[in-house]
Every structure is written in structure tokens, then in C-alpha cells.
């Protein structure tokens, strides 16, 4: 399974979900690769020292001779590996736009890594540009985090339309794995309304697991850990564990 975490809205919990879903799958014993395709490199910084990153996903996507094996690094979790990003990745958008195989670069390169890992999770930037499209073309599944807020559904039409276009031609086997409500605040009435509304739009695609707002989840990347080692008994750890169970039941 190759799961892209995508939503072109910023700050909806893509990176938090990529980090903790990948860590949960690794803890369950699956050899897991987290691919960071966001130039902000937040997933990368959580698991590796930036100074140790020589080659990154920028090189994999731009240099025909550089493969995943040259960039993948181990993390402190035994079964979790990361393909790191650097800020230079931002340049890849314009670089790939002019290439005839621009949409297929990741798919071609990931074929090798596919054999080595049981699960691959891809974190994407908050755009629907070449990077996110590369991720969708290379993936078996998409997981869409949606923030529990009043305007959360604005823009999902564009996202769903992009997914449909990718299914129509470059990747017919792409499936929406599910929609995940994130940053949920159980105490507010509006959060409940938003949850009902998202449920009406996405039906059984909506994961039963809801990720609530939690200070622990916000803090863990700063301590360079997933939620499972940073605060294993927190609500965030339980929720992301439960998400990983749902994910494994659906793939
Ligand atoms: N459940 C949560 N509870 C509290 N804070 C959270 C939660 N999920 C994410 N955050 C915080 O919200 C901010 C945005 O989350 P995150 O970086 O995961 O979103 P993103 O979609 O990857 O953002 P971007 O679009 O910029 O890449 C971060 O500061 C993160 O720590
Ligand atoms: Mg992010």
C-alpha cells in the first residue's frame, strides 16, 4: 500500500497524520517508509537531523540516476524509515512542469522501494501542483484529513476533481481510502455540526476515528518523536492507533 495524505488546505493535520500513521504502522511490525514531499520538511525534521540530509526527494525527482536507496534514512523506530525533503524541493514544481514525464517521476522511482517496504506513507504540501499530482499518480490510496472547522469543506471539490482526473487516466487503481476529521474540539457545538456535515458529504468514506485537538500532538514534533513514544497514553496516541487499525482493515 502506498498512501498519500493530501489536502491543498494548509494546516489541516496532513503532516501530523503522516508522521503518526507511519509510526503506528511501523509499531505494528510493518516495514514502513515515510516519504516527505513537502518543501517545509516538517516530517523530515521530526525524525532526522537536517544536517545529516545530503540527498533528498529533490534529487530523487530531478536526477534520473538517484534512487530511493540513496536517500532513505533509518529513524529511532526500528521499522520506520524516512525519505527526507529539503527546502530545495520547492524548485521541483517548475522543473517538472516542463518535462513530458513530469507527472510520473515518483511512480517510476518508487517501484524499487515498493518491494522493500510493506507500507509507504507520503506527506504532501498544501497545493495541488506537480508534487501532489506525482504522489497521487504513484499511490494506491489517498487519505484526506479535514479540519473540524466551519470552512473545512471549502476546496474539497477541487481536490476530489483532481483525484477523479488522475483516476481517469494516469492511475485508474487510485482509491480514496478515507476522510479523517482532525483538530476536533469535542466541547463545541459547531464541531458537532461540522462532523455531521462532513459525514453527509463523505458517507462511509469517513473514518470512525476522529483526531481531537491535543497539546501533546502539537508538542511531539518539537521533541522529534511520534506521539507513541512522546505520550503513549495520550488521546492522540490512542486515536492514531485506532486510525491505523481502520486503515489496515480498509486496504
Ligand atoms: N490534533 C491536533 N491537536 C493539536 N494540534 C494539532 C493537531 N494536529 C495538528 N496540530 C498542529 O496544527 C498545526 C498544523 O498541523 P500539520 O502541520 O500537521 O498540518 P499540515 O496540513 O501538514 O500543514 P501544511 O499544510 O502547512 O503542511 C501544527 O502546528 C500541528 O502541530
Ligand atoms: Mg504539512
List keywords for this structure.
251 residues; alpha/beta; 8-stranded mixed sheet; 42% helix; binds adenosine-5'-triphosphate; binds magnesium ion
Task: Note the topology.
Elements: E1 2-5, H1 14-27, E2 32-36, H2 42-47, H3 57-62, E3 73-74, E4 80-83, H4 92-97, H5 105-116, E5 119-123, H6 130-138, E6 141-147, H7 156-168, E7 175-184, H8 189-202, E8 206-212, H9 215-219, H10 227-230, H11 235-250
Parallel strand pairs: 1-5, 1-6, 2-4, 2-5, 6-7, 7-8
Antiparallel strand pairs: 3-4
Helix pairs in contact: 1-11, 5-6
Bound molecules: adenosine-5'-triphosphate (ATP) and magnesium ion.
Adenosine-5'-triphosphate binds near residues 11, 15, 16 and 182.
What is this structure, in a nutshell?
The protein has 251 residues and is of the alpha/beta class.
Summarize the structure in words.
With 251 residues, the protein is of the alpha/beta class. The chain is 42% helix and 18% strand. The protein contains 11 helices and 8 strands. The chain has an 8-stranded mixed β-sheet with strand order 3-4-2-5-1-6-7-8, with helices on both faces. Strand 3 and strand 4 (80-83) form a beta hairpin. The termini are close together. Residues 10-16, 38, 40, 42, 126, 182-183, 211, 213-214, 217-218 line the site of adenosine-5'-triphosphate.
